[in-house]
Design brief:
This protein has about 270 residues and is an alpha+beta fold. The chain has nine helices and 14 strands. The strands form four sheets. A six-stranded mixed beta sheet has the order 4-8-9-7-6-5. It has a three-stranded antiparallel beta sheet with strand order 1-3-2, with no helix packed on it. Strands 10-12-13 form a three-stranded antiparallel beta sheet. It is globular. The structure holds adenosine-5'-diphosphate and magnesium ion. Magnesium ion binds next to loops.
């Protein structure tokens, strides 16, 4: 059992959401009543002042990262104002982000908003993903429209084309005919995936996370790949040994953390 601390604050000083730092310390919001002026948090024995300071530090760190993103992408004309896209519903989530369907310039798009934890603890991966998604252009890769920064709580996300038919895994699971049969659609999906893999490798990029959740299907069943969080440029001068991806689909050399190359992607692919 933790401690129960009672915060009294007026609406202007109260954080809109329980700050991340509280979450990290297993703090749970016990009750909040509108108009909110009393909040109860179950907290570990640390002073409330200390917690609020940590929250400020956390927000400052986040704002710092936002500034880095702006400096990287602004001159490419890729920044999208927060109020330019309107969220309609949640589409899915993965380890690093939640993805929403949204209205942007009268078109339905997908907006991938990174978790704050990922942004603070693995910013390099987020930055890599954004760079890859903005610079790779292929008919089998989800097309990126720009980056969006959320003011409060500070968060960053990618606005991209909506894959209308959703995840390959769901389509295969729902349709026994497609799953069992040697259908035309299956062939189209597999060739689309292979074409994209060839394109990535021609740019010296290794994907390292091929799985049905990361392959999406467009309106006509074309394979569209997303989620470049684990992708890296292949560097033959150093030995790539990182154990990355999802175990079920991994190539043995990646699981064993021994030297591997882009050929590992082919094994992930065959594992589908
Ligand atoms: N462009 C998109 N269109 C439709 N759904 C999407 C799109 N991008 C992501 N999703 C959904 O969101 C899920 C998580 O996205 P993903 O980029 O894989 O996040 P993570 O990096 O956290 O794994 C996907 O598995 C898919 O269901
Ligand atoms: Mg994913």
């Amino acid at each position: 059992m933790g401690w129960v601390a009672r915060f009294e604050a007026n609406k202007d000083t109260l954080p809109k959401h329980p700050p991340q730092i509280f979450m990290d310390m297993h703090v749970s919001l016990i009750s909040s009543i509108a108009p909110i002026n009393h909040l109860f948090y179950k907290v570990k024995p640390v002073t409330c002042r200390g917690l609020l300071q940590s929250q400020d530090e956390h927000e400052n760190k986040m704002r710092n990262k936002m500034a880095q993103l702006i400096s990287q992408f602004e001159n490419k004309g890729l920044m999208i104002e927060e109020n330019e896209s309107k969220i309609v519903k949640k589409l899915g989530h993965g380890a690093s982000a939640k993805v929403y369907k949204a209205d942007y310039q009268n078109e339905m798009v997908a907006v991938k908003m990174y978790n704050q934890t990922i942004l603070t603890q693995d910013f390099v991966s987020c930055m890599n993903e954004m760079k890859f998604m903005c610079s790779l252009h292929h008919e089998n890769i989800v097309q990126v429209k720009g980056l969006v920064l959320q003011e409060s709580p500070p968060k960053a996300g990618v606005v991209m084309a909506l894959a209308k038919k959703g995840e390959l895994g769901d389509v295969l699971y729902k349709s026994r005919k497609i799953r069992r049969g040697g259908s035309e659609l299956k062939f189209k999906i597999a060739t689309g995936m292979a074409k994209r893999l060839k394109y990535l490798h021609s740019w010296n990029v290794i994907y390292r996370d091929i799985k049905p959740e990361n392959v999406l299907l467009g309106e006509n069943g074309e394979a569209l790949w997303t989620d470049f969080g684990y992708s890296r440029y292949i560097d033959y001068s150093v030995c790539m040994t990182g154990e990355t991806g999802s175990y079920r689909y991994m190539a043995p050399e990646v699981i064993r953390s021994v030297k591997y190359s882009e050929k590992a992607d082919v094994l992930y692919f065959r594992g589908q």
